[in-house]
Specification:
By secondary structure, the protein is α/β, with parallel strands linked by helices. The chain contains twelve helices and eight strands. Helix 1 crosses helix 2, helix 3 runs parallel beside helix 4 and helix 9 packs antiparallel against helix 12. Pfam families: Aldo_ket_red.
Length: about 325
Amino acid sequence: MAHPHIIFGTASFGFPNSAWQDAEAASTLLQTLRDLGVTRLDSAARYPPNNPGQAERLLGEAKEAVGGDAFLVDTKVLTDTGNDGSGDLTNQAVEASVAASLQRLQQPEGVNILHMHRADPATPLEEQISSFHEQVAQGHCKAWGVSNVPPATLEKMLQLCDQHVWTKPVCYQGPYNLITRGMEEKLLPLLRAHNMVFNSFQSLAAGFLTGKLINNDSLEGTRFGDDHPLSARMRQMFGGEDLIGAMKTFDAGVRAHGLSSTEVAYRWIAYHSSLGEDDGIIIGASRLEQTVETVGLIRKGPLPDAVVSLAEGLWDAVKETRGDIM
């Protein structure tokens, strides 16, 4: 059965505790992805956060080693997470970021899709959009897209594209999973009206949907682990009592059907969510076997009706407090 495209996200390339610390390891991963039929890759100039640019550099070296023509690469303009994004998307900043990305990726012919990583609240929208329009015109990317941009801002951008006959963004990247579904009502209709696809990330809600947190399993190697720099933030984002209680009920329910919450989360996003065949699911992994397992879970097909009901029940239990999260 058809499902959204699987896209491998390279945010973990060069990140502490991941297996992808050098070009050899990254090359092995790309060979495995190619064998699995996954040929779309997503990167960004700020990956990994502790060493921006290293993910693109490793990806460029790995692609060269395995024959990179088999892969379509998307990337994002550099954003400085030390501030609110102001100045990230000036014409000069976009040009400099793209030039550096193409060099690191060893891809002078340009990338597939170039994304805004997040909104720039200071630079006029006209300058931001015209900068991406120019990157497409210069052949540095086939198209452009946005990530983490509020729907109201995207709507203004699309209006400006119509007014100035600028190239419109073709896709939106955003979180989407069993407990983060605000995009279904607040964003997806806008995207569909403008023929934009949605490429989802955080299918496991940063690891919360594995069930490890509510089952007191070992959190080592996850974003909730004490050794992870995002641990405190993750626990704050996913620590609500209603969410914890609903997740316990859901996890027990899927276990009764002989399934894991992880498997249900992946199969739900692929076959029972609002995503269509033209949309994408960005997966990530810190180990090779994890990558193979995730692709395998997605390709197991749709879930039994009773398990889909459990998934809907989970959302019903938390949408009052999480309905605005996108």
